[in-house]
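Batch manifest, entry 17 of 40.
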Amino acid sequence: MRLPDCFRKFIEGKYFIHLGLLLLVFQILNTVVSEGKPFIHQVLRYTYAHYLLSYELGFIPRGLVGTCFNYIAPFLSAITFQIAVFLLTAVCYVLLARKFLQLLQKSENRLALLLIGFFLFALPTTFLPFADLGRYDLYLFMLMFLCIFIIRQPPDKQLRWLLPALLITGNLIHEVFLFLYAPTILAYLSWKLNWKSLQEKSIFALCLAGLLLSAAALCHAQTKMPSGAELDRLIQENDVLCIYPARELTLAVYSSQNFFSHLRHVQGFYLDTGKPFGIMLIISLFSMAPAWLYLGIFWKILIRKIRKCGKMHPIQLLFFLLAAQSAFSMFVIGTDLCRWAAAVFWCNILTIILLLCDSRLSLRLTRLPRRFVSFSVVLSFLYLLMGPANIFGFSKAGNWIAILIFDILNNL
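Output type: structure tokens
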């Protein structure tokens, strides 16, 4: 199936980008409003407590953002902090959407890009940073796109020497960067580097070494964390915005758990019969299944095209494919199911878009199976109707169903 001529002309027109950005802004506002939180509490207390962690407590995991926050906090109030975080998130999304729509207008693979773009727009997890405003995942997300932008620049600009520092920064912001986004960055870097150049080999080696050494340093720092009570006292003393009562700001659980106790915490979180999170997990996994199927079919079509063109080594292709799935490792060691699902979706879709637009591969995916196109459109509209996700549930509709089932079971 090919894109109809009338639709192709509309995409090439001057109003296409404006319409796309208007829909994006509407979905952002819809996500914020549907959460029903007062604006002053858009940043949740657990998230806000992270901004109070800093290197004043010593070298600790997740201390970088709080250290920077200490310098600007005196110029902020509770309201301006929420506004600044919201605007930063919104501007990031608008810039990314504009860049994607410009790529779509110029590409030969308009139908494929239009389908994957609409699917990303419709996914309940795509706008998760607006439902869970201020979480550090946004900064990791921005770092990934900054790294991809640098990798796409001509080598003679020498910007790639910034990559090791940026990857280390990602780990220092939040240690999950190593599992969520770093593998996708390394996979794309390995594809764009000139492996005959010693300089470019050195860049890749520095990136890998920086990631592993900073991760090791953070693991060691975790063992030296203050006690839970001491940590809470320090962050409460560091609070200058007073968004929440000081006694409600706590990260004690973050300090007191080792890896195995954390695994037990995750298991207990979903098996707790007094809360609906276990039911939300089951409904979320069933709701995500069609999305995994859709991406699997898209990858199958893309892999066939890449193998046919013969310009990419099978090992490189395998690296791309596995790197995009790296966030799956977090499903068993973290309770924030939809954060990890969002990372998997973003990395898979970003990788597909980069390969479709890669000048070296010059793929022409102008015809797609009619059944796949129909499946893509129907699935995207269904996901739009399901409503936005939060960190524990894949969609608003799924959460309502989970709570309803939980109430029925409790009243039997």
